[in-house]
């Protein structure tokens, strides 16, 4: 028999919504493909969004399409999606549209971390994509659109319904860190600061004070630094 004491229930809800943790130098690891493993985030803003910037770092050796960040609302499961469609292709979905950014295949012999920032603004519809501190030619979409703040925000899976509807073939396998969101378009200088590990003011999702819940097979671990020295 389960007993729900009203006071305890309220306390749990309050604690749950206030639990925030500084995850500096930590990573979320998604060890295998699944249609269950994900991390749920809560944003601090309750205002409709007319612009945003999302930044994160990912580390993976997978070549299939995968979802990094999924922001679903009650009316649109793809309200915001940061998707890596191919090794050399990132996409951003907003509302009912999407843009794709292509970059030349990198000639690297080992996997490397990729730091990205994507922004969108309603006034012009312009989308910015920054990869490792470099801006790409701007695209545009969904001019005049407004994004509801009532959202289910998920890392590592694409939502096809509010909080669920995951597809194993769009899941992320690898490591994620330094996840941030702002309710504005960062300036060019600020985009560089994020790449250099600084945090421009007032993020609504803040890796250094993160409100999150891990679900399924996900692991929080320290960032791995290589101290190996070639002789
Ligand atoms: C995932 O991809 C595999 C291989 O392409 C396919 O056989 C399978 O049906 C897909 N699963 C889903 C849920 O789409
Ligand atoms: Ca979807």
From TrEMBL:
Gene3D superfamilies: 2.60.120.200
Molecular function, one GO term: complement component C1q complex binding
Every Pentraxin (PTX) domain range: 20-226
Signal peptide: 1-19
Free-text cofactor note: Binds 2 calcium ions per subunit.
Pfam family, one: Pentaxin
Key words of the record: Calcium, Disulfide bond, Metal-binding, Secreted, Signal
Cofactor: Ca(2+)
Gene Ontology biological-process annotations: innate immune response
Gene Ontology cellular component annotations, sorted alphabetically: extracellular space
SMART domains: PTX (SM00159)
InterPro entries: ConA-like_dom_sf, Pentraxin_domain, PTX_dom
Localization: Secreted
Family to which this protein belongs: Belongs to the pentraxin family.
Subunit structure and binding partners: Homopentamer. Pentaxin (or pentraxin) have a discoid arrangement of 5 non-covalently bound subunits.
Name assigned to this protein: Pentraxin family member
Taxonomic classification: Eukaryota, Metazoa, Chordata, Craniata, Vertebrata
